[in-house]
What does this fold into?
Amino acid sequence: MLDFLNRLDRRWIFLLMALAVAVPVLCKPIFPEQPSPLTRKLFDTIEELPEGSVVYMAFDYDPPSQAELGPMAKSFVRHCCLKKHKMIFANLWPAGPPLVDENIRNVVNGEFASENFVYGEDYVNLGYRPGNQVAITQIATDLRKIYPTDATGKNLGVLPLTRSFKNIFDADLVLNVSAGYPGCKEWVQYAGTKGDLKIGAGVTGVQAPQLFPYYPDQLVGILAAIKGAAEYEAAIAQKYPQYADPQKNEAIKRMGPQLFAHLLMLALIVLGNVVHVANRRRGGVR
Amino acid sequence: MTRELMISWFLLIAGGIGLVVLSATSEKGVGTIYVKPVPAANQVQTWTETQRTDSAAVFSPYRTAGVWLAAFLTLAVFSYLYKDNVFYKLAESMIVGVSAGYYLVANFWDSIVALLMTELTPQLVRNWALPSLSETKTVDPWFLVPLVLSLFLFCRFVPRLSWLARWPLAFVVGTFAGLRLVSILDADFISQIRSTIVPLIVLTNGSFNVWASIRNLGLLLSVVTCLAYFFFSVPHQGLFGKVSRVGVWVLMITFGASFAFTVMGRITLLTRRFEFLFIDWLRLIDP
It folds into this structure.
């Protein structure tokens, strides 16, 4: 048995992992989610803003991180629509604009089509700008310098929502969906330090441990990885029963495959250590 | 024929037969996309995806081709897990090429046109690309500076003038150093020290809050022990050695958390790819 495990082709592990993820995707098991304090704090911040507050949606991500961050972005937009907040979309990643368009199309103009949100009054899409932290510094000082027009080429001065919007401090809240650089860390460093600015973030798992130290003083809340997204969907479902059906919540559905993949990982880690100890006892170095 | 090649051929043929059978028997259609027109106020006709059963549904060959191409590329990348092969290399090359092309076009429009040309030639940009650009916008000659500096970068290709390429680089390095110094000092040094100054005995509504007190104590001990580990002016022996040893444990726990979060992220990516294959392509389950 030990020799078999020592010689095991790693491709069997890949196959096991594929099955551990694929079978739950097909069977769609749902597990209960409870919002953690970090998620709850961010949810409450958006919830407690008065109707019509201006929320700057800094969607700094692109398709490779859509699986993790897409559900967060969707939940943020959904929650802002439920609260009838004004939304200003922007992103600093070149491949990000189609994802912002997707959220506007599916949520603002799709799910909430009956609310008749008007472009320019209720939401604006500024589009992509290069410059990373320099762009963030500009947004924090003079938005028009870096965004003279919106994504469609309209002058910001003629749009009611952005007419009097001078810089990021005119927003009541910044919601950043961050896949890396530039992202949440840069928003804290280059915008958060310039004044009293509330920033909430949804981030990839890779970034999350680096950003936890910013909570609660520099970030009002953090959604960490798909788990954070699932918790946020659960928080919305608790407050708004029309979203209680788990099948409507992408992140909650993705937690099923997570569980089985994690169980497999744990089993493999235990097995690997058992094989290692057994090899040492046998006296062979492998 | 090697064993691995036989398995590869078996998987290809079995997959192909499975696709043909599924296409012939599936009521939902395999990888077929139907669209319907969206009422639009302007002249531009847009389309949205719909079910085949919708009375206004029209078969979309382009979107269907897109789904099949995406499915092929997904499987081509997965195939690397078995063995490096020509399909994987093709997918890899396509990603590199498409990304380079996309970034070039995106940066041309959003950087050169939107940020530079609007300032130097607003009338031209208004007539050519951005008709809604403010009529009052005038030429800002200061933007000649970044234009000239940008052109200097190309001097790298002319040996006699290559020294000019150092000027824009010096500008970039200097600007970023200044920006980062101030911001990082504030966000990651002063603010973090302030966040670490917490009460060790937490009182909530006049009563002792055990868990909050333990959390704050843990925060303080973790910071102190980690700093001790990175303090190399004193030998790590005796009591100091034990404190720094605790710091190592704190670091290990942090690395473990980072690894676990990374694993969670990668599994999510795999989950989304399977969702795409099973739902968007093969239509095995409903969304």
About this structure: The longest strand of chain A covers residues 54-60.
